[in-house]
## 1
Amino acid sequence: MSGKQFIIKLVIFGALNLFILTLLLYSVSERHRDMHLSYAQTESNLLVIGKNEHYPIVFLGTSRGRVFSRDGNHEMVEKILGKKVANLSKGGGGGLMPMDVHLCFFMNQGNTADHIIYLVDPFVFYSSINNEHNDFFLRDEPFELFIFLKLIKDRYPLDRLSSYLQNIAVTDWRKISRYAAPGLTNGRLKKIDEEKLEKARKHYLEKCDRNSFVAYGHVVDDINRRVKTHGATITYVMLPLLMPDFPGLSEVDAFLRETADRQAGVFYINCASCMQDKKFYYDHMHFNKTGIAYFLKHCILPIF
């Protein structure tokens, strides 16, 4: 057998195996589409969001956005805003890349939105732990071939692909995807601890160097393009921070201002210093129920 024939057979063999693998993965994809849970029951997006639904408002963000739907808060959010809301925010620091995955799948299912509200934390723009190396944003999501292929396209590392494939073996999603610490948003921060804030500032500062505070800024363009292709608008809202010198805040602020000025249908609001009272938080980062209600009424409602 000549070398050329060997290579041709090798390619055919590889393509055949890839085809068989794709069929196998397709056969286990969508297995849990018939399970529909509420935000109060699960941290999963796939088990809440269905197909061909219209949502006037869709939230993107980290756990600081996810608290809007925990502890029964989702109903309060929809009541204050007077609109149906989908919350795609993910706990565990889901950054720009994870949000792009969830938004992409949301729209691929035929769902539509009028307005996307991205609740921004500065660190999602510069930390790989919150982007391609994040191992939380799919931990409570059933396996979907579409998402797996999206991860490959976006060059997620092999350990993240392997981790997601392990979700195929999960059967009790009602239990697995349940929030592990209910009731936190009913609490209230007792005092603002400057020592803890300084420790947190150093923690985030170590995640990058000063030249890469917007290292993942290109994902913003991908998200904006996707949003506008589906006929929606998007507003980036810098979330209130108890730390005025949060690493990357000024750089991300400048980047989002420039992006909003440059692109039609893209807007930006900086609320970083809007809520400095401890009564709005249950820890130094997350809103409690009082904070969620105040933020919605004073920062989000004026958008509409």
## 2
Amino acid sequence: MTQININLLPKKAARDFSLSLKQWKTIISIASVVIVLVFIGGSFLIWNQKEAAAKEQTEWDQKLAVVNSQIAGGDEVVNKVEGLSEQLDSIKGLLENRSPWSEVLKELASLTPSDVQLINLTGETNGKMSFSATTTDYHAAATFVKGLDGSSLFKNVELTSAGLTEVGDKFSVGFNVNLSLDSSAFQNNSDNSTSN
């Protein structure tokens, strides 16, 4: 017996891999679209990453600005405290060098003759004082000015002006005096009063 091999299947067709010009154009067009889409997608991803990084940087810049403003606010508080300290030192100095006006007025009352009237008494924080006075007696005015000049509380006593005024059939002497308060005399008096 002989065997015969018979193939009932059709012969394999040889595959032709040649593409027509139209097919090549289609493949190139599709490839171009894919490349453009990949480029656009990549660009979008890069842009998103840059946008996220910029947003994060902005948030950090804002946080840093808040911290810097808090530091500046702390410096401002320190400056205010230093300013207040300077003001308190100034007030302390003023209080230490202030004139006890009650003592000044007592001294003026004890030195003022009964027929002398004080008018427009002015005292300044720097220890200067001025006033106007009237009297009907020249001797009372002279005694008053000499008494001020001899007082331990006053210094630089100066009669700045004097004049005669006629009121009806009477004459009146008006005069102005400037003087300074002697702060050392006040300190001695306050030392004596605190030790008593």
